[in-house]
Amino acid sequence: MTAFILRQGLIVDGATPQVGDVLVVDGLVAAVGTRIDAPNGAHEIDATGCWVGPGFVDLHTHLREPGREEAETIESGALAGALGGYSALVAMPNTEPALDNVALVSYVLDRGARTPIDIAVAGAITQGRRGEMLAPIAEMAALGVRLFTDDGVGVQDPSLMRRALTYAKPLGVRLAQHCEDELLAGAGSMNEGAVSSRLGLVGRPALAEELMVLRDIELVRLTGGAVHFLHLSTQRSVAMAIAARGEGLPVTFEVAPHHFTLDETSCATFDSMFKVHPPLRTLRDVAALRAALVSGDVDAVATDHAPHAPQLKDLPFDEAPAGMLGLEHAASLTYEALGAESSDPTTFFQLLSRGPARIAQLRHGDHRVRHSAQGGALNPGDDANLVVFDPRQRWTVRREDLASRSTNTPYDARAMTGKVRATLARGRLVVDQGELA
Amino acid sequence: MNINEQRQARKGGLTFLAKSQLLSADDVSRALRRMAHEIVERNHSHSNLAVIGLQTGGIPFATTIASLLGEILGESVQLGLLDVSFYRDDLSINPVPVSSTTAIDHDLTGQTVVLVDDVLFTGRTIRAALNALSDWGRPQSVQLAVMVDRGHRELPIRPDYVGKNLPTSHNEAIVATLDGVWIGTQVPA
Amino acid sequence: MIDSIRGDNLLSLNDLSREAIVEVLDTAESFVEVNQRSIKKVPALKGRVVASLFFEESTRTRLSFETAAKRLSADVLSLAVASSSVKKGESLRDTIATIDALGIDAVVMRHQSSGAALQVSRYVPHVRVINAGDGLHQHPTQGLLDAFTIRQALAERRGTTGLETGAALFANLHILIVGDIRHSRVARSDIAAYVALGAQVRVAAPGTLLPEDIENWPVSVADDFDEALEWADVVGLLRLQRERGSGSFVPSLGEFTQTHGLTFERARRLRPEVLIMHPGPMNRGVEIDSRVADLPAAVIERQVTNGVPIRMAVLYLTVAGSKEGSPK
Q1: Residue of C115, C138, C188 lying closest to A316 (CB–CB)
Q2: Cβ neighbours of C124 in A, within 8 Å
Q3: Which of residues 79-108 of A touch C (CB under 8 A)?
Q4: Which has fewest Cβ within 10 Å: A115, A161, A265, B50?
């Protein structure tokens, strides 16, 4: 028998948070209570002053394997995720080749099963993510794939997107859209506006994102298929998605930490660390995203963790690939955005665990993916996927200390508040005292 | 802006704080007249004489000496202006001096050149000036006239005509103009 | 605000104060004189090594910079990167590291990507970086030589010299910039220089060739090109950047000439003292009529000539200068 007992943390399980103990025995939650007697030999973890809740789930991780293993592997990404408090990641399909068939999806699921945390897969909507022909969505769905996306780009052709929604609907799967109209945004490398104009960088207008959000909301209305909007970055996009959801349409959306932390002026030094698609927007957009986080209107925070090998980020800004690391600092940035000391722990776990778990449709007993954080309480008998987050710990990001194979973080040397102290995944203690156990 | 204001502006924000006046305007004027006579006595052939003032402090003295020579000789003497900024050997140590006009409108080959400066100190400015002069030809000889020689030479350079020898210490400063000569210190503005 | 480029990089004119710009123009006056000597060379940068690194070929700018460096007695390493093994996609860091390993004091750099010179300056902080044009961003020495040319021409007319006028001749001077503002690094540098010097700047272009946020720029926008020509004391034309795809921003070159070209008819209506400028190379018959380029009011050749003293001044101030050294 292996047993862990998390002592005297603030248990945030969906009901009113209370200080208490959580007992884990043989990989399952055994008991939750204000004071539990630990069995002999149980490993004690002091969680005093910390928040204890369901492990985080990232809807949006680029693990780069297969094809770009020099930037990240499934294994290194999983470890980075564990350090960030994640017990499950959804691997994006824009690998080389793209995850657009059962063989490749199986490959990633198999590799993922050898890591300490759960690796789910999002399949491509179209073959090769080329936006021309539908990929075998039903076959992949049979393997347990619940999300489909051509992320990196959105499905540009509206009739193809319509067809994909119609096809996906009876399968019970959700299409995740990277919203940017490439005809409007294609040549750009940062947000279009006063900053891009001064820097002589071609812009990606906010409208390129908003048009596709608008289009897809209407396609959802037409087809009844479900859409998840990836990394919405503008005030209007978020407002449209919230309104559509309010009308009862099957629409969800995520926001990424960089979009609610950084704004377009970061690009003024032409540092390609700040290049990302959709681009960093205006301060007004940043403020709108933060307000939506605090008010509980956001379904999920997702990292868009996008490792790139250093030599690629050393290219000129317009030639460098877009994307930045996210897994190891997302929880801290979310905590900060929610107001640091004044942030609400239930909202925090809603954004990082319950919301994304519901969208990813991670289910206990799913084929090769086991995750219990589907939105409920910490129930005895559930897989023990837990995180211990210390909201008072201050730390400083050091790019060379990150577990990711890449170093493209825009937060190097930045001071952070709040840190993951322990991560339990599938009942195993993966991270202890903030380090890989 | 007069020459003195320019000098101040160009010394990188330093201001000259005068301690005492060593020579009056009259003293300066008498010294320059004596130097002009010495130049005439030393040089038997006067037709190829050229006076070249070093920017910026040497210009008023060069102008005066040239006109005195014209008076004494009864014929005008060639006058040129030379800025040696680009020829200095201390560019990597000192902030770049803002350069000013160079105006030498004739070939100096075969000429007797009298370089004129206000204060002779380390000799590095004169070294730079000699280097610069070679770009205008090969003078028959080059002579040096300075209003004040304050010592502390770092190079084997010796003036031919001196208005006044003033032994100084390294941290003192000298300002020499047609209005007089002062000793003092340089302080940040 | 940067008050002097001494010992600094020159990456953009955006942050230069009026004093910093006037210092370059004044220093360039001295180099005009050097360029008139029979021996057009001074030893100011003797023993220094200046690398010219042109990722985007521009024979004119490269020659101008290399001439400037040689007249300052610097050793010049010339790398026509555009035609060498360095291809688009090679890391900027690797390229500059290779050249830095040869031991250089300064790099003059042209690149097709905005910000490339600034990036390189981060990789080699001990080397002075002079931006010779980066993407659509900046072309600082062009902006400086354009300002220098205007000051020189106006000072001559008043029987004085640029050195004596400082920035005074730019007060209330009406400068009209015409053409592809949106894709022009020259326009960005020109506007920064002219505005810092105190001029009033107006731009005239088809709507598609104006930047999206032109209302944030320190310029006014001409409603009518012909009226703006009456207003202007200086008309600065820009090359229509066909290679940057601005062809698709106007229906045809002919239509651009019709609406915004400096045709012979338009030039004839200009007041005779109005200066006509063009950074070259010209599309004769597109933005400028061939006959207009040869009018006495056109100072286009003078702009080319002034490139050398301006670049000498920039190299001299940035490479020979130091920020730390205390004056004696």
Answers
A1: C115
A2: none
A3: none
A4: A265
The one-letter code for the residue type at A184 is L
Q: What is the per-residue DSSP string for A157-195?
A: -HHHHHHHHHHHGGGT-EEEE----HHHHTT-SEESSHH
How far are the Cα atoms of A375, C102, C163 from residue C309, in angstroms, in the given order?
71, 27, 14
Query: How confident is the model over A10-28, as pLDDT tens digits?
Result: 999 878 899 999 999 998 8
The partner residue sitting opposite A318, judged by closest CB among C93, C114, C212, is C114
Residues B86, C6: C-beta atoms closer than 8 Å: no
Q: B96, C317: Cβ pair inside 8 Å?
A: yes
Position A201 in a domain = yes
- To 10 degrees, the CA torsion angle through A425, A429, A432, A435? -70
From the candidates A100, A304, A383, A390, which is the catalytic residue? A304
Sign of CA dihedral C1, C2, C8, C10: positive
Q: Which structural domain range is residue A398 located in?
A: 3-51+379-436
pLDDT value at C325 more than 50: no
Cα distance between residue C51 and residue B160, in whole Å:
44
Nearest CA in chain C to B14: C327
Strands (E), C47-199: 49-54, 75-79, 106-111, 128-134, 174-178
| A193 part of a folded domain | yes
**Is A304 assigned a catalytic role?**
yes
Instruction: For A272-380, list the strands marked E by DSSP.
Output: 300-301
Segment A70-126, tens digit of pLDDT = 999 999 999 999 999 999 999 999 999 999 999 999 999 999 999 999 999 999 999
| pLDDT average, residue stretch B81-89 | 88
Q: How far is CA B28 from CA A257, B1, C61, in A?
A: 76, 22, 51
pTM of the model: 0.89
Could you give the 3-state DSSP secondary structure of residue A308?
A: coil
Same domain, A175 and A45: no
Contact at CB, A202 and C119, closer than 8 angstroms: no
Residues A34 and A170 placed together within one structural domain of the fold: no
Whether A266 and A355 map to the same domain: the answer is: yes
Give me the mean pLDDT over the B116-123 stretch: 96
The answer, for B15 touching chain C at a CB cutoff of 8 Å, is no
Contacts of A198 in chain C (CB under 8 A): 14, 188
Supply the range of the domain harboring residue B86. Answer: 24-171
- Please check the confidence at residue A325 and state whether its pLDDT lies above 90: yes
Rg, Å, chain C Cα set = 19
